[in-house]
Amino acid sequence: MNDLTARLRAFAEERDWQQFHTPKNLAMALAGEVGELVAEFQWLTPEQAIAVMEDVDAGARVQAEIGDVMIYLTRLADVLGIDLLEAATAKLTEVAVRYPAEDVRGSATKR
Amino acid sequence: MNDLTARLRAFAEERDWQQFHTPKNLAMALAGEVGELVAEFQWLTPEQAIAVMEDVDAGARVQAEIGDVMIYLTRLADVLGIDLLEAATAKLTEVAVRYPAEDVRGSATKR
Amino acid sequence: MNDLTARLRAFAEERDWQQFHTPKNLAMALAGEVGELVAEFQWLTPEQAIAVMEDVDAGARVQAEIGDVMIYLTRLADVLGIDLLEAATAKLTEVAVRYPAEDVRGSATKR
Amino acid sequence: MNDLTARLRAFAEERDWQQFHTPKNLAMALAGEVGELVAEFQWLTPEQAIAVMEDVDAGARVQAEIGDVMIYLTRLADVLGIDLLEAATAKLTEVAVRYPAEDVRGSATKR
After folding, report:
1. What's residue B102's pLDDT?
2. CA dist D105 to C11, C17, D102, Å?
3. Which is nearest to A84 in space by CA: A68, A73, A69?
4. pLDDT tens digits, residue range B33-47?
């Protein structure tokens, strides 16, 4: 994870792209890539979507889009000084308290 | 990273939520969380966005939203059997070839 | 449609909000609202999603989110000087040529 | 507006695509198209974004993406039995009450 952050930072610096990597722009780029990822699944049935990685072409596209999303998420977190794993872990801990297993088992209702 | 993946998998299993965590549903949840993250920046000037972490309230919200995005991205990758760091690294390698530093320095034009 | 555009323009002017209604900001706001709309459907089964308007609470939320998306889309088009209906009609005409009915009947494959 | 709704409905029926046009799938398609629209603006400065329609190529792409977003939004509203203009107008009326002009002039703070 730290290695990816460092590689992305070097990638941007070598190209003098830090000027474009503002929080607003990176949040937009993230939304753009998530849009491409969602588009891979939009016309698939639930069953086709579950089996998407068995299709060589679609699987490669999904993997590439997930890579793109991770790249911009990592870069945005770095630019903001946020530790991505820590942010996710903190949020998971909070959600685990809000949704105790015994109370919500098998139910998707939001709280 | 592997630890987060494992914790999220256990979190879903304890709540019998694997049934909801299909690729289509997780892609939608990811889009939803990215929407919330983008919304944190939408009315900020570029300067305000760069300084967002200095604002205690806005900074905490941004960190929480980034945590949410990371949670669903990690979970989606796990359900699809994709290694998130590997996918990002592979994509970065590909992009580095497409955009050689000497050719694109300081330019944001897409190829 | 023209009436909605005019009302939204007056709404922004009365609040001196044109300064916030830049193309970048409105595109972000649009993405944020679409994220909220998608979130309404994320954990629903296909069958539950089809019947969502029969649920008074969920139906009202979906209608409100669709209204929000339409508001920002209309506002963005206005700020850019784009006629929303014309843009959609032009695109539909183009897509109708790319996907002739006799060739693509019952198939969702992209071209 | 009614004409666009009718044309889109006929377009889907002629291709036997109603089976794909479920609320979940259309919400995903909408998110995908909004992602493409946002991507058009992501690396532009605020000033470049304001002038985007003066660039023939970028302007045509933005108009086409806005058309795509409008197409899926119209189609989703139709499938759900929601009147798009009515939904937007109802929401605008509600927002106008929540943000009285005299209270919020020149401020983007959310309520």
Report:
1. 92
2. 11, 7, 6
3. A73
4. 999 999 999 999 999
CA distance A1 to B84: 10
DSSP at A104: H
Of A38, A84, A85, the CB nearest to B31: A38
Catalogue the E-assigned strands of D32-83.
Answer: none
Q: ipTM greater than 0.85, yes or no?
A: yes
* Mean pLDDT, rounded, of chain C: 96
Separation CA C21–CA C83 (nearest Å): 17
The minimum CA-CA distance between B45 and chain C, rounded to whole Å, is: 8
State the nearest Cα–Cα gap between C65 and chain B, in angstroms. 12
Chain A residues whose CB is inside 8 A of the D32 CB are 35-36, 38-39, 42
Query: How many residues are recorded in chain C?
Result: 111
Q: What angle do CA A17, A19, A24 make, to 5 degrees?
A: 110
Q: How do residues A38-50 score in pLDDT, each as one tens digit? A: 999 999 999 999 9
Which of A8, A76, A29 minimizes the C-alpha distance to D43? Answer: A29
Q: What domains are defined for chain D?
A: 2-100 (1.10.287.1080)
Give me the residue label for tokens 């007056």: C10
The one-character DSSP state at B45 is -
Give the residue carrying structure tokens 């050719």.
Answer: B103
- Partners of D109 on chain C (C-beta within 8 Å) are none
- What confidence score (pLDDT) does residue B87 get? 98
Q: What are A's interface residues with C at a Cβ cutoff of 8 A?
A: 24, 27-28, 31, 38, 43, 46, 108
pLDDT at position B108 is: 85
Beta carbons within 10 angstroms of residue D18's beta carbon: 11
| Residue among C23, C94, C96 whose CB faces D49 most closely | C23
